[in-house]
Amino acid sequence: MTGIIEKPRHSETSNNSYATRPNDVSALGVVDFADCDQCSPYPNRWSNIREHISAPAAEFMGAFILCLLGCGGNCQANLSANKNVSASPAGNAVTSNLSWAIGLSLGVWISANYSGGHVNPAVTIAFATVRGFPWKKVPIYILAQLLGALCGAGVAYATYFRAIDIVEGGSNIRTVSVTGNLFATYAADYLPSVSAFFAEFIGSAMLLTAIFMATDKRNGPAPPGVVPLAIFFVILGISSALGMDTGAALNPARDLGPRILTAMVGYGSGVFNFRNQYWLWCPILGPILGMLMAAFFYDTVLYRGSDSITNKPSEEAERHHLHSCAPRNKPRGVAETV
Fold first, then answer.
1. On the chain, which terminus has fewer CB atoms closer than 10 Å, C or N?
2. Stretch 284-299: mean pLDDT
């Protein structure tokens, strides 16, 4: 077996040689179980535990990075515009959009190999609905994403706590219109509710289409490591073109996690009462429905992979395969069992 260091043989002439001490770990070096089909894939107890928690932990870390950099970028760009905080602005709409784009690309990068890099409940639901992602994993993924977003926004809030005090006018003053919108998203005053929902719907549909496009093997396929870069440009484009109306949440966890955080730190019930439960029907239902629509559209007209429900073979196709193709593909010399 390659990759495993051969154990030293016992000396035939001396019982006191170094090779005759089987309990000396240093004599064996580092044992690699990766290429051994007969050894357990879990060489110790923690590796077994890690196998079960790595996927939700990756989703937590991805959402944490997204909201830490995104909310942090919002805070730096907006709080620094106050002369009592900074002599000159330390950011603008461009740097804020870049922060969200970098945050999501890094979040996808860190989690892709362990959980698929969803970092978004709407993405998880779309993959479960159309691409066969196990529904039993959906609740734990969404919970991990929500907690990661809440904690990431919490760290950003703790970082800019004093600057928020200055802008608000005191540590006991917290208003949604001044600094609460640096964490959760709120529709612009001029925007009717239908337009706000449509903005989230279409932006989320664009994001899911880009994800399917970047991961479609017939579309390249993309070299390793390119998908997070593609996500970076997509988010930068969507937030720059469609972000003014609603803030381009595009992600239920990215909005609900920071929104819960603001309710916890003193912004009050206004974060949930805004526009008759805006938090539910716009930044949560908008992305979910938009991504579901995009997923069905992409798989119906473009995607040919067998993992999509739109490409599930009919009973007639399965019978034809069993009677015509399967016997032809059977290796020669293999006798049929009765």
1. C
2. 98
